[in-house]
Records
---
Amino acid sequence: MANWHSLRKRIHLLCFLIFLALPFLNVMRFDIPRQRFYCFGYELWINEFGIIFFALMFLMFVVLVASVIVGRIYCGYLCPQMIFSEAAATLRLRLRRWLKPREGLATAAFYAILALASVILAFIFIAYFVEPRDLARRLAGFDIHTAAGISGASVTLLTFLDFAFVRLRFCTTVCPYGYLQGMLSDGNTLLVQYHDTHKDCIECRKCVRDCPMDIDIRKSPFQIECVHCGECIDACNTILAKLKKPGLIRYSWGLEGKPHFPFDAKRAVLLAVLVFYAAGLFTALSMRHAVLVRVSADRSTLYRAGADGRIYNHFRYTVANRSRKPSAVVFSMQQLPGATLLLPVNPVAVKPGETVQGEFDIAAAPARHGDFVTHFNILANTIPDPVRETFPMTFISPTEAP
Ligand code: SF4
Ligand code: SF4
């Protein structure tokens, strides 16, 4: 007989370790000061809108598809709010038990441990938005004047208040996921259901007493408070095992006595949209260049006639190195014979994480035979990773030779 409680506690521990490790290993962080998004080895820049858009939409549809198929398993097994709320409730209970006659001491110890835990949890949470070493420096300097300092202090206070007083009430009042789930789940979603075809229920109400959300699952499998934790299943199994009977509550897809459609139109549409965003994300990532090069013509002045009799057009470039190793970009030209690219330093070197902007001229002889606009290409070759980009440009000459 499955013991959902111990499985859930093991998963909670694993999730806590993952929650702890992700920002420190740069696996996942929306780094606000640096304007970077770290995601599974990719260092995305905030202006890489396409990738971030597809990544966020993909994650959102993963959540939606999971909600339709496995219901609120996320809430009961993976949600940090659930994990820390239950841990706080268990701590409170144990302290009361250990320090039984001294209720005041148990309460003081509980709030002291919670305050310390809130500082640590807030630190980890903010590390998803600010580099942890940078954050530690600010914390050590009691920085509560900057935005990061104020956020740190506020998140610590909110974490403390949440786990001291709100805990699982959050799930039924503030959290929108429960309401969303109410709209998404149906008779084909995984539900915690009560089946008592042989009238075996002995009305012991242990399923109700053990429910962290204080509900009676026997009334309906569609109660918005139910987080699919399975505690009521364990409770009923334990009680009825003493009478050598199977439990009356279980996880199941499909409502009792009704046909089960594991793959209907709603699921097909959601899966199709999920596949669409997955393909978009994959395409955007595969098209991504670690070194971003942008070249544009400066048309504030169409051209300049030089004292040497040649015509000059002005251009601007931006080179952003989004990789972790030094790179350089070599600029050259194509299809503009006899022209000179006047770039003071070529190749343009860029350090990891650096953005370099600059300007350059291209000089060419005045156009003949009425070719006042010449189409040509500027080439940008990135080294050491060999990427070649072509920028179609125009070179403008005066309509009459100067
Ligand atoms: S009814 Fe059962 S599965 Fe739902 S929250 Fe309560 S104990 Fe968990
Ligand atoms: S634990 Fe089982 S037997 Fe007891 S009240 Fe709940 S459903 Fe009935």
---
Amino acid sequence: MPEVKTHDRINTAVLLALMSGLYYIMWKEIAPVAEYLDIYMLLVFALAYLFATFYLSPDLDINSKPYKRWGILKFLWWPYKVIFKHRGFSHNPIIGPLTIVLNLAIIVAALLLLGGIDLHSIPSSFIVAVTAGMVLSMEVHIISDNVVSKMKRIF
Ligand SMILES: [Zn+2]
């Protein structure tokens, strides 16, 4: 598997390419999806993607850099690390992102409820953009892991 710096670089490069593509679609209005895109949504998407790249990596299943980046809050991910053995379900393209997003959703929902914020007051387009950004970041990680493993087997 690539080391954490490589993962961060690959993910950032993919994001830049993706943002250019999405911006182009929005600017030229060349796809039906263009009507759902605006600068605000692109920004939310990109920030969620970057946050996931640095803090919500599927490598939260080990004592990895993304796990350590949580600092004193890393206990929030301790159950995840214990339940998932490395590169098991956390690196499954469906179960991995789903369980990480669910784990985060539980944490965020608890914080919002404690802060007295009504969950229904959050626009659904915001939630879609955040989720899409996070899931895509994790998928890029999983694909990178697979590609690098296959290349190592060939060479
Ligand atoms: Zn990994």
